[in-house]
Amino acid sequence: MRTLKDKKFKLSDIIKYKPIRVSAIKKKLLYGSREKSSILKQVLVYGLLIGIGFVYMYPLLYMAVNSLMSTSDILNPTVRWIPSSLNFRNYVIAFKVLDVGKSLTMSIVMSGVPAILQTISCSIIGYGFARFEFPLKNLWLILLVAAFIIPSQVTIIPKYILFETYKMNNTPLPSFLPAVLGQGIKSSIFILIFLQFFRSYPKVLDEAAEIDGAGKLEVFIRIALPMSIPAIVVAFLFSFVWYWNETYLSGLFFGKVIQTLPMRLQNFVDNYNILYPTPPGSTANKLNESVRMAGTMLTIVPLCVMYFILQKQFVESVDKTGITGE
To answer: Strand, coil or helix: what is 168?
Structure first.
């Protein structure tokens, strides 16, 4: 191979081969190679992801920034994203107004217990549809889908009359009993998830366990449930979030005696005026936007913490069950 020290190497050779090398480099940068994507593709992909991420993160960032602003910062049009000083007093006030110590405990109980009961009942129902044959099975599946399509506002009056007849209103039972019977919030989705998941793994595993002497219940507990961990994680997390955010039905059935964080947030203005009354003609204790944002942040922080802790399991479970979240 000729080098620059070679007497026969001419300047024309450099001019001849230089465009070829530059063209190859440009081609690799624009179109990439088998080992690495092109720079242009990476810029487009990361730009798109950053744009979508900003759209989803903007409301959370807006609330976090505004919750730390003072009244003067809110009224100052030049202060938008960086407060002049961090005002943590907004969170102290919101903490008292929401009564976080008590309402957070009630939220965990009134969301966690129905979510657990609903996950268990939906897994049993889904396994029954996937593994057993019984009369009018297809009709029951159609009714299952219809129960999801029908708005909850259509059935709310019969439910209220039913629970009132059996003296269940103003107790947790209107939330717990439907979850036990597979009629909780959007239970139809979870039943269909479990149905599809139990259909996906080979039936010979159940048959092998039955040959070894296991009964139907034992097969379900020792074979089906351990394999359905992804579906269980998805069902529990979605159910927990939906029960957490439910305020209309909760306020109707037991809102007089049980107050969750979202329910306290719904009545934030009234609760604030009770704790911090504003004297006539004064603006000393007037509610501002920063305190409201602080209350909203306190309401969604538990869900964010739960998601960050279970993020890996949640993403893997969604990928394995083949569904998308809301």
So the answer is: coil
pLDDT of the residue at 326:
40
Distance CA 254, CA 237 (A): 23
How far is CA 238 from its chain centroid? 6
User: Mean pLDDT in each 10-residue stretch from start to end of the chain (326 residues)?
Assistant: 50 49 59 66 87 89 89 81 86 92 92 94 92 88 86 87 91 92 89 89 85 87 88 91 91 89 90 81 73 91 86 69 47
Alpha helices in 32-99 (DSSP H): 39-66, 71-75, 89-98
Q: Which of 65, 87, 109 is the last residue in one of the domains?
A: 87
Residue 130: both structure tokens together: 């996937």
- CA–CA gap between residue 164 and residue 174 (Å, rounded): 10
CA distances from 86 to 59, 61, 166, 277 (A): 19, 15, 52, 25
The total number of structural domains in the chain stands at: 2
Residue 61 lies in a domain: yes
If asked whether residues 71 and 133 sit together in one domain, one would say: no
* 166-176 per-residue burial string, b: 16 or more CB within 10 A, e: under 16: eebbeebbbbb
Instruction: Note whether 213 and 192 are same-domain residues.
Output: yes
Cα 260 to Cα 81: distance, rounded to the nearest angstrom? 31
Name the token pair of 223.
């074979």
Which residue segment(s) compose the domain that 67 sits in?
Answer: 40-87
Instruction: Classify the phi-psi angles of 49: left when phi > 0, otherwise alpha if psi is within -120 to 50, otherwise beta.
Output: alpha
Is the same domain home to 246 and 98? yes
101 lies in the same domain as 81: no
Handedness of CA 136, 138, 140, 143 (dihedral sign): negative
Report the Cα 197 to chain-centroid distance in Å.
Answer: 20
Nearest CA to 274 out of 90, 22, 74, 96 is that of 96
* Rg, C-alpha atoms of the chain: 30
Structure tokens at 257: 């005696």
